Amino acid sequence: MPSHSRTARRILVAVTSAIAVVTMTTSCADFTQEDQVAAQGSFTAPPTMERKPAPPPSPRDETGGTPPTGPCVDPDPSVIATCLASTSGVRPADASGQTTYVAERTTGKIILSKRYGPQRAVATVPVDASGDGGLIDFAMSPTYLEDQLIFALVTTGSDNRIVRIAPTGSVKPILTGIPKGASGNMGSIAFEGPNTLVVATGDTGNTGAADDPSSLAGKIFTINPNAADPRPDLRASGLGSDVALCPSPGSDGQLFVADSGARGDRLSLVGPKSLQTLWTWADRPGVSGCAVGQDWISVSLAKKQRIDTFIRPSTGSSTLGEPSAQPTDKTYGAVGRMTSIGGAATQIATVNKSVRVGDVKSFDDRVAIFMPKPGEDLR
């Protein structure tokens, strides 16, 4: 075979592998076989983690013609995904944020979508979606383009757990036994390094469990998801019922967390072994997500249907000025999870089907690009 033919064939195989779709039948959420799997798939060598800032995205209509019509079309040009089941985690799928990966909490699907484009399930995992459980959050492997591995925090019939979804569709338990409750299961995960996955868990409706050092409920801890038997390293305790991590998009390594629960609605800075509370909301507006930019921190408040944005404090400072409040009731309704787009803007995922504080539109739930407006600067 000529050398150029062999080269073309290798390129074709590589491209086909890179776009492999991870699918899995979910007609019955049976976790027995999953728990019996000793090893599925393999891990790549530790990658180098790099965060590169992206320019602010500008919502735009890329169809070049008349926009489509129908019950799943939102005329807002900022909206890039519609007609989703109740959402949870959301991640940009490109540097500009014009495409998105978004989790459907109740179906266990991770959807790839762009405005007016076809939506495709890139992964599916069986979940128990009762209460506020289900597919709680997900994070792409740091080398996702090479290995297509996805890590997820999910609810089963017996626990909350961290799993790894392989390109073949197999689901491997990584850490099991995280407490599960009738409520208070909403947590978050994020990679902090090639072998460091940060996990934040809800308190399962039990503040005592959140304070109990022997329980993984209401905690922030790290694990090495590449280890055969990962051991949680505790970083903070006393978290509430709905916990969202928001890592810095820069190289400073700062990690923030927003939570709501019996102790109130809070925004905190995560230290090596504790939390430093930066802001609290006395009116309990329902903290539901957060995102961090280069010079701002945004927090979504689902019950009040607004997003509060602060000037980000300087490193070492714990002083925040009053946030600017941007209502979302007339545009998106209740917003849940958020994620930064290169530190310039955010993607937001609505939770109108689960929160139900306003009208549910025919095109709910949605993902949209949102431009934060910071509040008062006290630095």
TrEMBL record:
SUPFAM superfamilies assigned to the protein according to its UniProt record, in alphabetical order: Soluble quinoprotein glucose dehydrogenase (SSF50952)
Pfam families in the cross-refs: GSDH
Keyword Signal: yes
Keyword check for Signal: yes
Record region (Disordered): 42-76
Top-level taxon in the UniProt lineage: Bacteria
Xref: InterPro entries: 6-blade_b-propeller_TolB-like, Glc/Sorbosone_DH, Quinoprot_gluc/sorb_DH_b-prop
Keywords for the protein's UniProt record, in alphabetical order: Signal
Domain Glucose/Sorbosone dehydrogenase as annotated: residue spans: 99-229
Secretion signal span: 1-29
Biased composition (Basic and acidic residues): 49-63
Protein name as catalogued: PQQ-dependent sugar dehydrogenase
Phylogenetic lineage: Bacteria, Bacillati, Actinomycetota, Actinomycetes, Mycobacteriales
